[in-house]
Amino acid sequence: MLFCPNCANVVTVLPSDMTAQNKWTCPTCPFEFPMDFQVTSRMYLQRKQVDDVMGGEDSWKNVDSTDATCPKCDNSRAYFMQLQIRSADEPMTTFYKCTRTQCGFQWREN
Fold it and tell me: Which residues form the TFIIS-type domain (predicted)?
């Protein structure tokens, strides 16, 4: 975002009408600045570290396995557990974890 040096409002792009150039213009004062070069910038936001709601690795210690295909490695077995994460009138959510230690992919249904 660029700001007007006179009144500190955000400047906007005014498309060229008769001229060959676009201009930065301030909506509140007569400030105009021709665009001589391309202005680009990119900022990557960092994701916050999220706590594991289900209890981390300890929650997967005493669970059963079932026939479920892993969407990442196509393994035919997966650990599963069911938790009520929505309101009481909604069905339980089934969480799966691939049984292959190299994969360990986690997914859910419902």
Answer: 66-108
- Annotation marks residue 57 as catalytic: no
Q: Is 98 annotated as a binding residue?
A: yes
Q: Does residue 16 carry a pLDDT above 70?
A: no
Q: What's the structural domain count of the chain?
A: 2
| Cα angle for residues 21, 40, 15 (degrees, 5° grid) | 25
Q: Residue 17 is part of which domain span?
A: 1-37
Catalytic residue chosen out of the listed positions 32, 57, 90, 109: 90
Determine if residue 58 is labeled as part of a ligand binding site: no
Is 109 one of the catalytic residues?
no
The reply, when asked if residue 103 is annotated as ligand binding, is: yes
Percent of the chain with pLDDT over 90: 7
Whether 59 is in a domain gets the answer no
Pairs from 54-58 (Cβ < 8 Å, separation ≥ 24): 54/81, 54/83, 54/95
Residue 54 scores a pLDDT above 70: no
